[in-house]
């Protein structure tokens, strides 16, 4: 979906979102309250510039608008794979963005992510997955790593990974599989404005994704392992 049509659907009471070189920023009206909006469009590759711009908007909201909700609109092909970005420390810029979102959450800002087109790799991890809850449109493309790249990294034949993807959502792309794993809270099919309003009201800073993944049958061990580690840490 085009971001302008998406904004109209999400904020029928009005918004002032603008695009600058694939970076989205502004505010919108949701259920009588103003929310900050940041995001990307055009399958943006997240380089140092966009990562820093997003972080700046988050910090500006924390300073000027205490506890205002933040909505992250996600359309990214992941981090930009350029020598320049690597030399400048793109990993540090993206970590800075994640830290800024965590700071906002600790200061009482509710954070909601929405994947409306494409979400890949680190560009997704440090944006939508840093939200209190992340949602997706049905046509969204979501994956951390494509199967060909996964085959090269793991040395597992691509044919075997393709077979595994048929029954295991960890290997398979798509919003439905991320819903099963708990990474996506819900897939929005209709009335986006109402869905967004409910999502903001229900935003919970406690991370429940691994528990949701276990409940939905998409991740069988993540919650059990984290609980075992937590229990061990609490043991004198």
Automatic annotation (TrEMBL):
GO molecular function, one term: lyase activity
Keywords: Lyase
Gene3D superfamilies noted in UniProt: 2-enoyl-CoA Hydratase, Chain A, domain 1
The enzyme's E.C. designation: 4.1.-.-
An annotated GO BP: carbohydrate metabolic process
Domain of life: Bacteria
InterPro entries with a match to the protein in the record: ClpP/crotonase-like_dom_sf, Malonate_gamma
Protein name: Malonate decarboxylase, gamma subunit
Species name: Collimonas arenae
Name of encoding gene: mdcE
């Amino acid at each position: 979906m085009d971001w302008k049509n998406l904004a109209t659907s999400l904020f029928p009471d009005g918004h002032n979102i603008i695009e600058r070189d694939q970076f989205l920023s502004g505010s919108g009206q949701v259920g009588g309250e103003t929310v900050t909006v940041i995001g990307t469009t055009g399958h943006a590759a997240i380089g140092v510039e966009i990562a820093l711009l997003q972080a700046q908007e988050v910090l500006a909201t924390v300073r000027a608008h205490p506890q205002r909700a933040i909505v992250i609109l996600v359309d990214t092909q992941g981090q930009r794979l350029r020598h320049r970005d690597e030399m400048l420390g793109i990993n540090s810029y993206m970590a800075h963005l994640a830290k800024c979102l965590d700071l906002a959450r600790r200061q009482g800002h509710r954070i909601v992510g929405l994947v409306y087109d494409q979400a890949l790799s680190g560009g997704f991890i440090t944006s939508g997955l840093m939200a209190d809850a992340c949602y997706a449109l049905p046509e969204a493309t979501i994956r951390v790593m494509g199967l060909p790249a996964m085959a090269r990294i793991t040395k597992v034949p691509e044919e075997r990974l393709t077979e595994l993807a048929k029954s295991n959502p960890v290997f398979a792309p798509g919003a439905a599989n991320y819903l099963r794993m708990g990474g996506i809270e819900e897939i929005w099919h209709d009335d986006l404005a109402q869905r967004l309003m409910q999502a903001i009201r229900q935003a919970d800073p406690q991370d429940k994704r691994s528990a949701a993944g276990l409940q939905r049958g998409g991740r069988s061990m993540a919650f059990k392992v984290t609980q075992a580690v937590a229990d061990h840490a609490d043991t004198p």
